[in-house]
Amino acid sequence: MSSLSNDYAGSVQTEQIVLERLEKYTGLKAIQTPIAERIDFVLGDAKKWRVVGEIKTRPRFYPAGFFMADKKRDVLAGWEKICRPIIPWFVVHCLENGTIYFRDVREDDDEFEQTYMTNPYSTTRQSEWGRIVPISAWKTIEPPSVFESVF
Amino acid sequence: MDEINDILNGFKRPTFIASVNNRLASHPERNENDILKAVRTSVVATLAGEEPELERFDVLTRRFAFWFILSAFANDSEPWTDEPKLTVKSAQALVFDTPELAEQAGAFLL
Asked: Chain B: residue nearest A37 by CA?
């Protein structure tokens, strides 16, 4: 899990579930990145890694959109340049509706309002600049149905 | 090759990095594409916790790639400084056949 801000305390437990759903959605293998602090996973295989990404857990659904920190976007975009060709994803797991939201951080977000956000889950007072990315701007992976999850 | 080794041995002196880069830029055997491939192979495999397959790159290319990573790190360049362990381990993987260079790279984490 990232050491950057806006981490929800329960995210460690759900991260593996998110990776399993990303694997199913993409058909690629997911690997948690044990050596990195600010990158949570890569997707692909030993011959070609295709996605590098970060997972954030949000306990509630925010109709206005989800916050993406500028620093986090810069980190992922920086590694994309080094590891090219690889796609940098910022992934949000919303616990309230079970949906996974993901976005290529290279996509233009200048039209979204920049804001200064304080991390409500941090024990220390952490604040950082970023943008609220509207729900419509994210790609989504819907939660598995009850039928799928049971059978 | 001896010249490259001498330069690499001085990588802990960041003030010389720019002049070293100037000298290396005109090296007759420098292959920019292969250097970038070696850097990427090492970084992404290390990120995934795998052993990078770097034997296919010749020793000179791997040393250029080693220098590429560590000189950026020593210059406080992003994204290298965001992930010190990843950076150093990626560099060390490139000099798997030269333990003394790998050890020097490890000094960055001390």
From this structure: B83
Residue of A75, A82, A83, A87 best to disrupt the B interface, most CBs of B under 10 A: A82
Pairwise CB contact (< 8 Å): A35 & B44 = no
**A87-118 residue pLDDT tens:** 999 999 999 999 999 999 999 988 998 999 88
Q: How far is CA A105 from the centre of its chain?
A: 10
- Partner-chain contact A83 B48, CB within 8 Å: no
The residue count for chain A: 151
Question: Model's pTM, two decimal places?
Answer: 0.86
8 Å CB contact of B86 and A35: yes
CA A46/CA A131 separation, integer angstroms: 34
Residue pLDDT, tens place only, B53-109: 999 999 999 999 999 999 898 888 899 999 999 999 999 999 999 998 898 888 878
* Closest-CA distance of chain B to residue A139, Å: 24
Chain A residue with the nearest C-alpha to that of B35:
A82
Which chain A residue is nearest to residue B68, measuring alpha carbons? Answer: A82
Cα separation, A36 vs A38, whole angstroms: 6
Buried b (16+ CB within 10 A) or exposed e, B1-29: eeebeebbeebeeeeebeebeeebeeeee
Taking residues A20-43, report their average pLDDT.
Answer: 93
Q: Where are the alpha helices (DSSP H) in B12-98?
A: 17-25, 32-47, 59-74, 84-94
